[in-house]
């Protein structure tokens, strides 16, 4: 009896995990397992399910759905590359300027971060108005300053729509990258800068030889986060182009493809919850290994102090 009480006291802390474990199971684990299981069935959303084995994966990867799938996957890859170039690099540059203590630093920090606090739906709606080809502010401003030749149907051109959405997304998230880099720069030992200046180093050499190398772990972490976010992107495309991801599918990503397949919509070769679950599972198989790398890097940085 005494031994039982001792064991109970030793492991009583496990009871504190029960609420969190229950919520995690209900909101994450069960939906994931259910979605994984559903990918092996053909099911329109109502009625009995028909077991089809790996047929859904075959249809998506090599069958009649493959064209839509690989087109959307390619757009996700483009989304990552352009998001990295328009997000992380400018974020680092702006952070370097702000870390120099220029006039109005606090004002610019606030200015850059405000878009990050806005709902993605509001951002999408706002920029859809600004980019309207007929009366939108962007085209009107270009015409006023004599650059009317640059006025374009930004969201109606198959070559411009996706880059435009990526730039809008970069505008919204810029503040996050700037503040992250600023935190990293502030954390660098000031004595390193003083020693470099004593040795005759100029500001450019301090940036390239001291600051940037010290920020490489942060750049790596942000890059991995960018990959995860880029392959899970849906809301900004949905807000600016709808479920059809127009024009002519030029902004279609895996998220919008899943939405049309699972819940119906013009432009998809087939509709079904099983096919939709298959697309979600494939997204998971892409993102999960990258997430593991991210967790490993975070743990490694934490242990290194």
Keywords:
single chain, 305 residues, mainly alpha, MetI-like fold, two-stranded antiparallel sheet, 13 helices, 70% helix, flat
List the helices and strands and how they pair.
Blueprint: H1 2-10, H2 17-38, E1 41-42, E2 50-51, H3 55-61, H4 66-99, H5 105-113, H6 120-130, H7 137-144, H8 161-186, H9 190-198, H10 203-231, H11 235-241, H12 254-263, H13 273-304
Antiparallel strand pairs: 1-2
Helix pairs in contact: 2-13, 4-8, 4-10, 5-8, 6-11, 8-10, 10-13, 12-13
Strand content: under 5%
Major sheet: 2 strands, antiparallel
Give the neighbour order of strands across the main sheet: 1-2
How widely separated are the two ends? 44 Å
Low-confidence stretches: none
- Please, what is the average pLDDT? 86
CATH superfamily: MetI-like
CATH class: Mainly Alpha
| Shape label | flat
Q: Which structural class best describes the helix and strand composition?
A: mainly alpha
Specify the number of helices: 13
Fill in the CATH topology. Answer: MetI-like fold
Number of extended strands: 2
Named CATH architecture: Orthogonal Bundle
Summarize the helix and strand pattern as letters.
Answer: HHEEHHHHHHHHHHH
**From the structure provided, what is the oligomeric state, counting identical versus distinct chains?**
single chain
Evaluate the radius of gyration: 24 Å
State the share of residues found in helices, binned by percent. Answer: 55-70%
Tally of individual domains: 1
């Amino acid at each position: 009896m005494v031994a039982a009480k001792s064991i109970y006291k030793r492991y009583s802390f496990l009871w504190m995990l029960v609420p969190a474990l229950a919520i995690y199971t209900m909101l994450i684990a069960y939906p994931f397992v259910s979605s994984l299981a559903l990918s092996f069935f053909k099911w329109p959303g109502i009625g009995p399910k028909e077991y089809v084995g790996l047929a859904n994966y075959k249809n998506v990867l090599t069958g009649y759905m493959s064209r839509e799938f690989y087109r959307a996957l390619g757009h996700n890859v483009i989304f990552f590359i352009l998001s990295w170039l328009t997000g992380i690099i400018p974020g680092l540059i702006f952070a370097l300027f702000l870390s120099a203590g220029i006039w109005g630093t606090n004002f610019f920090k606030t200015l850059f971060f405000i878009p990050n606090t806005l709902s993605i739906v509001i951002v999408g709606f706002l920029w859809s108005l600004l980019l309207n080809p007929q009366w939108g502010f962007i085209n009107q401003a270009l015409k006023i300053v004599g650059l009317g030749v640059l006025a374009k149907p930004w969201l109606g051109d198959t070559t411009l729509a996706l880059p435009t959405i990526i730039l809008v997304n970069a505008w919204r998230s810029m503040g996050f990258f700037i503040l992250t880099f600023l935190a990293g720069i502030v954390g660098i030992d000031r004595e390193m800068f003083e020693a470099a200046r004593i040795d005759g180093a100029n500001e450019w050499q301090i940036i390239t030889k001291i600051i940037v190398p010290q920020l490489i772990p942060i750049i790596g972490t942000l890059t991995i986060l960018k990959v995860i976010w880029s392959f899970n992107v849906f809301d900004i495309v949905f807000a600016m182009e709808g479920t059809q991801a127009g024009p002519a599918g030029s902004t279609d990503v895996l998220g919008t493809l899943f939405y049309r397949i699972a819940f119906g919509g013009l432009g998809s070769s087939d509709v079904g919850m099983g096919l939709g679950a298959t697309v979600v599972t494939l997204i998971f198989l892409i993102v999960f290994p990258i997430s593991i790398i991210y967790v490993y890097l975070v743990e490694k940085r934490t242990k290194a102090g």
